[in-house]
Every structure is written in C-alpha cells, then in structure tokens.
C-alpha cells in the first residue's frame, strides 16, 4: 500500500512538473512576446489589440488569428497583402514582414493568442514557426 | 446603482486619457470637388520608400527590403552596389536624394538602416555614391548613427539640401525615447547637418559642446519621415510621427529642441499618459500637430503649374488612413485640411518631380502619379 502511494505520488509529481514546465515556457514566451509586440506591432494593432476600423484588423478576439494558426505565423513571418476577413469585416492593406527571427515570431504569437480575451494553451514553438515556409 | 459604481472608474480612466488630448484645431475634410486622379506608373514594388528623378526623367526608387531600382522607359533595372541594409521593423532602405549639382559631380545620397559598427542590430546611416551604368560606385559612408539596437522603431529618415548646399538628414530615436532625443551626446531623435562630403560644418550649433555629437542641428525629435526645403524661404521643414496622437510639423532651426518626450500632444499606445506637458520654456512648439495621428510619411509643397488650385499647399502622406493630406497655409498657420485619394493605400512618400507632377510611393503598389481628371 505504501509502495502504491509512493508510485502514485511520483506520477502526480511528474505530471505536475511537466504541466508546470510547459506553463512556465509559455509564460516566459508570452512575456518576451509582449516586448516584441510593443516594438513592432502596437503602432497599427494598438495597445489592446483592437486595431483600427477600416485599416488594421483587430487581434483581440480575432477569428482570423485564433482559427488560422499557420496562416497567422505565415503573415508575421513573411508579411500579408490583399483582402482578409476578420470578425466579418473586410480589410485590404499591406503588412510588411518585420524581419523577426523564428523565436521572436513564436513569442509574439504566444503573446497575441493569449491576450485581450484570447486563449491558446498550445504553445507555438520555434520548430513550428521554422516549418512554415514561404 | 451597483452597476453604475463599477462603471465610474472606467469612465474616469477614459476621461483622464482623453483630457490629455486636444484634437487638432482644424479637422480634415473630404474634398468638395477633386480635379485630379491617380495612376500607377511603376507597379509591383512592395514599399517604395524613397524616390528621386535623374536629369533624363528616369526614376531611382529605394525599396525598403534593400533593392535600388532604376525605372526608365517602362523597364525596371536593379542597380548593384547599393548599401547592405538592415531590414527589420521600420528599418531598411530609406531615402534617396541627388546632390543639387548632380549634373556636374554625380553624387547620390541615400539613408538606410545599417548593422555596421558597435552593437547588434542596426541604426541609421548616410551614404553617397555615383551611378555608373547599372552599378553604384565610389560608395562613401558619411555618417552612421550608433550604437546599434535590435528594436524595430524609428530610424527616420529623409534627406534635404538647403540653398547653401548643406545636407540635412533625420534619424528617429530608435524606440528609446527616455535615453536618446534629449541627450546631445547620443545619436537618434536628431536632425543632422553636414557638408556634402560628410564633414561637420564649423558653425553647427554644438561644435563646442563637450562630448556632443557635432553633426546635430536640432534635437528632441521622435521620428521624422518627411522633410523639405521650403521653396520660397529656403527653411527646412519637417514632420514627424507622434505616439498615439501628436504628429507634428516643425520648422527646423539651428540648435533648437523640439521637446520629445518632455512635451507632446500625444499619449501612449495603451492610453496611459506619457507626459502632462504640451509646452515648456526652451522647447519649440510645432507649426501644426495632428490629434488623432495620421502617421505622416513623405512631404511636398506644391509649386508646380500642374495643380493651380493647390499652389503653396503642403501634401503629406498618411500611412495610417491611406490618403494624401492637403494642408492649406496662411501666414504659417494651417487653415484647412483635406483628404485626397482616400483608399489609395498606405502612402509612404510624396514628391514633386522636376516635371511638375506629384508622385506618391504607395505600399503594396509602387509609384503612383497624380494627374488631372
């Protein structure tokens, strides 16, 4: 019985550790992503991810962002031009590639998908970003 | 009632943020009649940042990612030997300008973000070179702001020559507004003045200030991306991006402090207060400020006969709203603002060419010409 308890405890602690370290990775990535956002994105997408009606689409509660993970990574990595529909509204402008490294793209993705009412527990990794090709 | 109590703090926050911002005294209107339209003359250029015209009427276009494009007789040719640019955030290939005596000396001046020098990242540089066939030759880096930083913001930059042949160029504060713009010993947040060969003029304002960067002409700037020589007075006029609100037009004068970030008509992007002050002794007031921001880039004063109803007006590109703003002046006061070509796209550059026509650099398009209807 004692042994069983120890084994159980062991499993619990391993599971906890894994979850904890994943959360820790995500939290740290989000933190770095916030700096990137304030450096490169905020001038158009604004302080609360609200964008600007008619010009810059919102990121806060954005269906485009939350339902198109790879496409969003692609847009940050290589830029985006042409019509997009975000939350039922059309936008047709140009977002230039910002020249971010893959780890910076992952960080800013983790930040914007976990801010202003957005929630994404599945961390965007550097590997995932590197696999999004032009 | 309980609900109301919850709302009160939000209202207070909203009001205190708004209270800081006094909207521009003159509002932008839609034109009642417009006798001009736009036509794409050079297509498929992602960001046509700078534009200059050679004596044969052909164009030199800087593309932000690093290409120097010669456009002649309908054909685009990439010029080799252009500076290596640090293409990140707002940095990349920036402005281009011919020497006033280009016909005799062949010098072409360019600003760009460069990773040369101290530190990782990049900062604004000024180069001159000559065009020989499809190559640049005789490249000389005349100025390199430092240190480098990986931040994405505020490189400037425009180049202007005044009537006496001095060269002026701008470098933004590189996202470090509490460090750079008010410190004369540091680059960034400055407009510089040089001889055409890069030497520092003996009468620059801070040549005798210990440790100052001697090339500085004016300081306290945020990010000037429009600069012209006034066609009548010969003064240097510049506009610059504010934060959220507070874009400005300034007459750039020797040794003057334009106040950023001590005074500003803008607020932070998260609606918090950046500074309570909009004026302070020893700091210049703008000729005009924009609240809300239009994100100005590119600047021209119309002198040509092609647009008789615009003569003496300022034209400013709006990156934010995607139009060209026409500002009517009376005794150096803006008395009217008009939104031209709304929906044309993000306007990066506005140039009055030697042929008298106005050309725009429009992001995602290329070069767009303003022609009579």
What does this structure look like?
The complex is a heterodimer of chains A (134) and B (373). With 134 residues, chain A is mainly alpha-helical. In chain A, 55% of the residues lie in helices and 10% in strands. Chain A is built from six helices and two strands. In chain A, strands 1-2 form a two-stranded antiparallel ribbon. In chain A, a hairpin with a 2-residue loop joins strand 1 and strand 2. Chain A is elongated and about 65 Å long. Helices cover 6% and strands 39% of the residues of chain B. The radius of gyration of chain B is 21 Å and the shape is globular. By secondary structure, chain B is mostly beta strands. Chain B has a five-stranded mixed β-sheet with strand order 1-22-21-20-19, with no helix packed on it. The longest helix of chain B is centred in the N-terminal third of the chain and has 19 residues.
Notable traits:
heterodimer; A: 134 residues; mainly alpha; two-stranded antiparallel ribbon; 6 helices; 55% helix; B: 373 residues; mainly beta; four-stranded antiparallel sheet; globular
Short description:
The complex is a heterodimer of chains A (134) and B (373). Chain A has 134 residues and is mainly alpha-helical. Helices cover 55% and strands 10% of the residues of chain A.
Write the layout of secondary structure elements.
The complex is a heterodimer of chains A (134) and B (373).
Chain A: H1 2-40, H2 42-45, H3 63-67, H4 69-78, E1 80-86, E2 89-95, H5 102-112, H6 126-130
Antiparallel strand pairs in A: 1-2
Helix pairs in contact in A: 1-5, 4-5
Chain B: H1 2-20, E1 28-29, E2 36-42, E3 48-53, E4 59-63, E5 68-72, E6 75-78, E7 93-98, H2 102-105, E8 107-114, E9 123-132, E10 135-144, E11 159-161, E12 167-171, E13 190-194, E14 216-219, E15 224-229, E16 236-240, E17 247-252, E18 288-290, E19 296-301, E20 314-318, E21 323-330, E22 333-340, E23 347-352, E24 358-362, E25 366-372
Parallel strand pairs in B: 1-22
Antiparallel strand pairs in B: 2-25, 3-4, 4-5, 5-6, 7-8, 8-9, 9-10, 11-12, 12-13, 13-14, 15-16, 16-17, 17-18, 19-20, 20-21, 21-22, 23-24, 24-25
């Amino acid at each position: 019985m004692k042994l069983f308890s120890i084994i159980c405890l062991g499993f619990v602690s391993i599971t906890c550790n894994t979850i904890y370290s994943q959360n820790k990775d995500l939290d740290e990535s989000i933190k770095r992503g916030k700096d990137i956002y304030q450096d490169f994105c905020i001038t158009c997408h604004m302080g609360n991810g609200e964008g600007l009606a008619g010009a810059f689409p919102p990121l806060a509660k954005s269906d485009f962002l939350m339902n198109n993970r790879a496409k969003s990574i692609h847009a940050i990595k290589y830029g985006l031009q042409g019509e997009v529909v975000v939350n039922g509204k059309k936008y047709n402008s140009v977002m230039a590639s910002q020249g971010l490294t893959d780890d910076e793209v992952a960080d800013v993705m983790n930040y914007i998908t976990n801010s202003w009412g957005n929630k994404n527990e599945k961390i965007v990794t550097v590997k995932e970003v590197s696999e999004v090709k032009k | 009632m309980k609900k109301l109590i919850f709302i009160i703090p939000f209202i207070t926050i909203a009001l205190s943020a708004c209270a800081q911002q006094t909207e521009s005294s003159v509002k932008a209107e839609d034109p009642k009649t417009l006798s001009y339209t736009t036509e794409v003359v050079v297509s498929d250029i992602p960001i046509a940042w700078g534009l200059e015209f050679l004596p044969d009427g052909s164009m030199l276009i800087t593309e932000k990612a690093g290409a120097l494009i010669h456009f002649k007789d309908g054909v685009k040719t990439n010029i080799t030997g252009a500076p290596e640019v640090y293409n990140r955030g707002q940095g990349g290939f920036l402005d281009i300008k011919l020497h006033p005596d280009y016909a005799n000396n062949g010098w072409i001046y360019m600003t760009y973000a460069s990773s040369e020098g101290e530190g990782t990242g990049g900062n604004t540089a000024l180069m001159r070179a000559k065009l020989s066939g499809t190559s640049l030759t005789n490249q000389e880096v005349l100025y390199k702001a430092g240190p480098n930083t990986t931040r994405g913001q505020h490189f400037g930059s425009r180049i202007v020559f005044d009537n006496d042949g001095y060269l002026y160029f701008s470098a933004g504060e590189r996202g470090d507004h509490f460090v750079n713009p008010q410190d004369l010993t540091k680059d960034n947040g400055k407009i510089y003045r040089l001889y055409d060969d890069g030497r520092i003029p003996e009468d620059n304002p801070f040549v005798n200030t210990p440790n100052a960067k001697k090339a500085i002409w004016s300081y306290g700037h945020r990010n000037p991306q429009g600069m012209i020589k006034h066609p009548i007075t010969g003064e240097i006029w510049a506009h610059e991006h504010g934060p959220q609100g507070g874009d400005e037009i300034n007459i750039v004068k020797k040794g003057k402090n334009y106040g950023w970030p001590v005074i500003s008509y803008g607020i932070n992007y998260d609606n918090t207060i950046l500074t309570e002050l909009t004026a302070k002794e020893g700091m210049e007031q703008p000729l005009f400020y924009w609240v809300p921001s239009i994100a100005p880039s590119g600047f021209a004063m119309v002198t040509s006969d092609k647009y008789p109803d615009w003569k003496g007006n300022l034209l400013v590109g709006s990156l934010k709203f995607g139009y060209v703003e026409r500002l009517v002046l009376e005794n150096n006061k803006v008395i009217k603002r008009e939104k031209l070509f709304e929906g044309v796209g993000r306007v990066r550059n506005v140039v009055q060419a030697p042929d008298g026509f106005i050309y725009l650099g429009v992001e995602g398009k290329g070069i767009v010409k303003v022609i009579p209807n």
